[in-house]
Amino acid sequence: MRSVMISICVAFVLAIGSARLGGLLAQTTPEPQTHYKHGQGYQHSFENAEKWAKAFDDPARDAWQKPDEVLDALHLQRTDRVADLGAGTGYFSARIAKLVPEGKLFSVDIEPEMLRHLRERARHENLGVLVPILASTESANLPEPVDLILVVDTYHHIDNRVAYFSKLKASLRPNGRLAIVDFKADSPEGPPPEHRIPPEKITSELDTAGYTIVATHPFLARQYFLVFQAKTS
Ligand SMILES: C[S@@+](CC[C@H](N)C(=O)[O-])C[C@H]1O[C@@H](n2cnc3c(N)ncnc32)[C@H](O)[C@@H]1O
Hints:
- The longest helix has 13 residues, at 112-124.
- Strand 4 (81-85), helix 6 (93-99) and strand 5 (104-109) form a beta-alpha-beta unit.
- The chain has a 7-stranded mixed β-sheet, with helices on both faces. It has a 3-stranded antiparallel β-sheet with strand order 1-3-2.
- It has a single domain, classed as Rossmann fold.
- It has helices spanning 7-16, 19-28, 49-56, 62-65, 67-73, 93-99, 112-124, 161-168, 199-208, and strands at 5-6, 34-36, 42-44, 81-85, 104-109, 130-134, 146-152, 172-183, 211-217, 223-230.
- By secondary structure, it is of the alpha/beta class.
- S-adenosylmethionine is lined by residues 5-6, 8-9, 12, 41, 56, 85-88, 91-92, 108-111, 114, 135, 137, 152-154, 157-158.
């Protein structure tokens, strides 16, 4: 099965798109098949990464997503190994790749169309460290442990999160970090309200999964930005 992607993408695109982009999407994007299963991600069928790239990589997004400030706050080293979990069209991956030229970047997604797009983007933009990884809904399928796993606008799409993130600890190197950025309840962008996860719930879920919160960055007006590490004992 080649197409599972999340509803936030629809809400996200429609919300951040300009009137021109909204019109374009209305004309060209098939009606998504959305559904919600209790305790699982909110998903829909998806194809055509290039159309989604117009929204995800819209420079207007930078004003509220603040990608460079987000990455600055994570203090990456040139040799770091990073996973961009739910990489989409590479909005964050393209920036991360330039920060870790002597490290590795695994750009992970469950959508094969996104991986094809990422591969082409890496070639066109000379992002030599970018390695596309096809995930499943049960596993990120990372080939080796990393220093940072970044999850932007994707946490709420993940199924069975306690089990998923409990297993994902094995993909963190010693002192490795898990950073989550996702939409606040009152953000004009984001998924329908019932699919927004309060930061307290994320912290609680990840506590159960074996993580402790190590930083909270308050500079994103529309999103929360939380950093976790695996508990040591
Ligand atoms: C809203 S997009 C965000 C993309 C990117 N992080 C960004 O900020 O532009 C969510 C992405 O997560 C992917 N995704 C959804 N569930 C996933 C999962 N369980 N594992 C990996 N990727 C997933 C989707 O295919 C989609 O590309």
